[in-house]
Write a structure and sequence with these properties.
By secondary structure, the chain is mainly alpha-helical. Helix content is 68%, strand content 3%. The protein has a two-stranded antiparallel sheet. The termini are far apart. The relative contact order is 0.11. The C terminus is likely disordered.
């Protein structure tokens, strides 16, 4: 039995295949996102309502923003932060190198230092330095320095030693992690070329380790700025102490604490921007093309908008 086929109705063999119908993509509805957004907006509204209904003198905050006592406390806070971080970084690098040393004595001393200062609260360390005058009458570093302990251990010195020596323990571990991140083949190649151990560290290991060391160090600087508020325990005149004094004298205690928080936020924001650009600088050797900075992205968007408005291609 044969079936007649109409060959004229079939497309020719060399004809292109018919185009498929376009797919209509239907986006998935994320109802949970809308619920989460509503909850967050509601919580923010409740927080704003609570502060708006409270008896807060908001006008006192800009009034005392640049008060002389507040600025003096801010200056002291920044000073103790910078000096403590310098001590922490320098001593931390030394401790990290000692920890990596093959000399068992130096490695053990470094391990004990890190163990002690990381294991005790910085608040306790501040009190300890401040009250050592109860057991030591004089400080005698022959033949460099000799004085009464009460004259030597001022509130500034107590804050500096308490914060700086504690920070050195954390910086030692950060530096050790950075040094260990560099492949051992780099050291072996440098020694094969006749470079000494110190020169290998300065020229080969440390520049490569900085990419790992810089990010946590930036976080430590920001954390140090906030931790410096603990020096009020040793009567050092910092931002928190000045805010409390001004608030007590003017009767706006809570407002001055909010002002201190605002200054801390401003300082940490500036430090965060500096950390971003420092990380970007040390990332040049690891990335072929660095991402655009926020300022570069803004300029690119503005130039693209101008080009489109002028009829060009953005």
């Amino acid at each position: 039995m044969s079936v007649d086929v109409d060959k004229s109705a079939q497309p020719p063999a060399d004809a292109p295949p018919p185009h498929p119908e376009p797919i209509k993509a239907i986006p998935v509805r994320h109802y949970g996102r809308w619920v989460a957004a509503i909850v967050v907006i509601g919580l923010i509204a409740l927080l704003v309502r609570a502060f708006a209904s409270g008896n807060v003198n908001w006008g006192a905050i800009p009034q005392y923003m640049f008060n002389g006592d507040i600025l003096k406390g801010l200056r002291n806070t920044l000073l103790i932060t910078v000096l403590s971080m310098i001590i922490g970084i320098v001593l931390g690098v030394v401790l990290a190198v000692m920890r990596q040393s093959k000399n068992p004595l130096t490695a053990s001393v470094s391990w004990f230092y890190i163990w002690f200062f990381r294991g005790t609260p910085v608040y306790v360390q501040l009190f300890l330095w401040f009250n050592l005058g109860l057991v030591f009458e004089y400080i005698d570093i022959m033949p460099i320095y000799k004085d009464e302990w009460s004259d030597f251990m001022t509130p500034f010195m107590s804050a500096l030693l308490g914060l700086g020596l504690n920070e050195a323990a954390y910086m030692a571990e950060i530096c050790r992690a950075g040094l260990n991140s560099v492949d051992e083949g780099q050291t072996e190649a440098a020694h094969a070329l006749g470079m000494s151990h110190g020169k290998t560290l300065r020229r080969i290991i440390v520049p490569q380790a900085m990419r790992v060391i810089v990010p946590p160090t930036g976080n430590e600087v920001i954390n140090m700025l906030k931790t410096s508020s603990l020096v009020i325990a040793v009567q050092y005149y910092d931002l928190l102490q000045s805010a409390q004094n001004v608030g007590r004298d003017s009767g706006v205690v809570v407002e001055m604490l909010i002002l201190a928080a605002a200054w801390y936020l401003i300082a940490t924001t500036v430090l965060s921007i500096g950390q971003y650009y420092l990380e970007r600088y040390y990332a040049r050797g690891a990335s072929r093309q660095l991402p655009l900075t926020p300022l570069q992205r803004a300029k690119a968007k503005l130039s693209g908008g101008f080009n489109r408005s002028a009829g060009g291609v953005g």
